[in-house]
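Explain my protein.
***
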Amino acid sequence: DTRVQILSRDANPADWVEPAFAHQTPLRQVLPDLKARVSTLKTEVAEMRKQVKEAPGEMQKLIDERLRQLQDFDLASAEEVQKLKGEVSSLQDELREEQTQRRQLLNEVIQTRGRIQVFCRVRKLSAAEKDMEAVVKCTEHTVLCPGVNSAGDLQSNACRVFRVDHVFPPESTQEDVHYKVAPLCVSCMDGYNVTIFAYGQTGSGKTYTMSGPNAKNPRENPGLAYRALRHLFELKEQQKVTKTGSVDLFLSVVEIYNETIYDLLGDRVECDFRQV
């Protein structure tokens, strides 16, 4: 607060001048500290201005260094990519050569086994057949069945021997059957004609082997037809991944009934065999 004192003419000037300047004494005491602080701040400002002036140059140096590192990395990466491409191309050539040899060897194996192979699958006996001994014994390549007399009665003491390329015993699974037929699927993808069909009397297990136990749900223990198709698509996908070939798959489902062929995918219309 500023207070104004009214003095008379007779008053002594010293009486009021000295008190008026008495408050300047504390300011004089802190003045050197303020000057030192101001000098320090000026120095810091000058240093900051210097840094600001030098900052663009330092930033440009940093940018140039990063660009150089990126260029070196891109060059090294490009060289590595070219090297890897060469290795992949070499491996693909080796793979094609090995696949060619595999096709030739597989074809030779199939020819050695015979163009026509006969497999026999012995199904389990039903409850009504338990006491009939329909099959006496089976090995890997032979089936021993009881003979039949002129009246049609079984004769266990007069066995008949049937020899085939392979016999699936009653405990064999759908996987076992497909495993034996799988090489034919590979041969089909190699460009050879392959035919797989089931033959036998009514109730012998043809539908079970080819389609499975549940026609409404093929995923439940699927038969040979579904497994073979799935295998073909798997082989097709392998060729796509390895870039060793391109295959187009076409499917026809037909039925031969009373020597007439029906296209089951075309509203069961009769068709010519050559169209199939």
About this structure: The longest helix spans residues 24-113. Strands lie at 119-121, 137-138, 142-148, 154-163, 166-168, 254-257, 260-263, 269-270. Residues 51 and 58 are 10 Å apart (CA to CA). The helical segments are 13-21, 24-113, 174-189, 206-210, 224-242.
